[in-house]
Amino acid sequence: MNQKGVIALVILAVIAVLVFVGINFTINSEQQIQSKENSIENHSPVIVSSPTSSPSASPSPSSKPTIKPLPATSKVVSGRTVFAYYYAWYSNLPRWLHWVSCSGCTPPNNIYAKYYPTLGAYDSSSDTTLDWHMNWLKMSKVDVILLSYWGANHDFSTDVVVKKILDKAAASGLKVAFLLEPGSVEKHRASITHIINNLTNNGTHKGLYKVVRQTKYGSSNPKPLFLFYNWGQHYGNNNPGMSADQIKALYKGLFDSLRNTPLDGIFLTDNSKAAMVLNSAKNPNDASARNDVDNFHNDGLFNYDANAIWKGQTFAKSNDYINLIQVSPGFDNTKIKGSKVVDRRNGSQYDESWSEVAKQKPEWVVILTFNEWGENSQIEPANAVNIPGVSYLNYSGHFPGFACINDDARYLCRSAYWVNLYKQP
Predict the structure, then answer these.
(1) CA nearest neighbour of 58 among 131, 134, 159
(2) In sequence order, what are the residues at sequence separation of 6 or more whose Cβ sits closer than 8 angstroms to the Cβ of residue 397?
(3) Cα separation of 219 and 265, whole Å?
(4) Between vectors from CA 145 to CA 337 and to CA 312, what angle results, nearest 5°?
(5) What is the rounded (10 degree) CA torsion for 324, 328, 334, 336?
(6) Rounded to an integer, what distance in angstroms lies between the CA atom of residue 89 and that of residue 97?
């Protein structure tokens, strides 16, 4: 064979090697991509076609969420902070709580909500449930869980569940503050005492939200946060002759007595139920907010109302008080014999609620809610189940054109999007 022939054979051999390597590279790359896709799929929430009829009544996710360690300190300085109302009042067999709270409800198939949870009719004490909730709250970029609290060992907030939530929040890098449900001044004092002394190890638990935020009547010491929901309901029901000013005086006495003691906190009162001059959207102006703070000696205001569209309104801001602004995805309590409906409008309600917040960037923002299923105000993942005889809504088509891991999680993804805008400089 002449020299040219040898060169030609060498060239052909090199080409063959390159083709072989290229084919193997392509195969390996496709396998790696498929492996990654499988890994992603295996770590997303289980999508069930119908709820299980097993005793747990809650389909289990295929993998446990990764829990990140807590930073060294539990104290933070107040800044732009995102809260979410959270409810730990759900249980299933042998005793159903809340899922059964409507006429004709027969959980796990027919529950008291118009959407169906991706986790099924779950139990709030379940480790699996709580692990997923912490994972999803982090996915939404929520900073602080505002836990609905009804008093020591109440069925809707048992000590066991509250302690679990604190522990799991701490392990996930989240914090917990408390939404005190309606009761007397004495009950609220007892609740704060129990939370601090018995549930949070004298206020030292790493999951407890403690913040440095001085107000007109509050010190600059790091303190936990307590919200007083519908503060006048107890007295309005049991002492109908009492005026709002008389009730405020009781709370003023409570707050003054707790200042500069181990039970001190940041105390916000519900202005959606207050006898105040507010505009139609329950957004107080500065004069109204100052008047309320001077009457209560509280640290600021919040409201719990799903009509949270703030276009054209200005949020009151001051170093003297905190004005906690809420955003709402929608609301519908008609299945539990209510009459209020705030249509989600395929996500437009949530976007419009967040829009002004992202522009004005108030100090604190709260999402109404993470998981209040009976009022259908949740952002928690909901599944498009197919159950004979029961019709459920789902999130498919909400936020058109917006990419998310799946339809169940669309409100988590959208929350993260808005939180990013809100926290930008």
Answers:
(1) 131
(2) 346
(3) 9
(4) 70
(5) -60
(6) 7
Q: Which residues are registered as beta bridge partners of 220? A: none
- Residue in this structure with the two tokens 């009730």, named with its chain if needed: 247
Task: Provide the whole-model pTM.
Answer: 0.82
Q: Is 47 exposed, middle or buried (0-12, 13-18, 19+ CB in 10 A)?
A: middle
How far is it, in rounded angstroms, from Cα 292 to Cα 313?
Answer: 19
Strands 266-270, 300-302: pairing is parallel
SS3 309: coil
The pLDDT score that the predictor gives to residue 283 is 72
For residue 131, give both structure tokens: 């692990």
Is the separation of the CB atoms in 321 and 216 below 8 Å?
A: yes
Number of CB atoms found within 10 A of residue 187's CB: 16
Residue with tokens 């969420």: 65
User: What averages of pLDDT result for each successive group of 10 residues across the chain (425 residues)?
Assistant: 50 46 38 32 32 34 37 52 97 92 91 96 97 98 97 91 98 97 94 97 97 95 95 82 86 96 96 45 79 92 86 92 95 92 96 96 96 97 91 96 95 97 93
Q: What is the pLDDT of residue 237?
A: 82
DSSP per residue, 260-286: TSTT--EEEEETTSSSS---TT----H
Q: Which two tokens stand for residue 354?
A: 């967040």
Q: What type of residue sits at position 409? A: A
Tokens of 105: 């409800």
* pLDDT for the residue numbered 282: 64
The whole-number pLDDT of residue 272 equals 65
CA distance linking residue 230 with residue 204, whole number of Å:
28
CA dist 283 and 302 (Å) reads: 9
- Per the DSSP assignment, residues forming a β-bridge with 327 are 367
Assigned token pair, 38:
């499988």
Which DSSP letter does residue 424 get?
-
On whether the CB atoms of residues 124 and 161 are closer than 8 A, the answer is: yes
d(CA 330, CA 345): 8
Contact between 331 and 375 (Cβ < 8 Å)? yes
> Where do runs of H (alpha helix) occur along 271-393?
286-296, 348-360
Q: Token pair of 68, please?
A: 């990140």
Rounded to 10 degrees, the C-alpha dihedral 98/103/106/112 comes to -40
Backbone angles phi, psi at 98, to 5 degrees: 70, -45
SS3 367: strand
Whether the bond into 94 is cis, omega within 30 of 0: yes
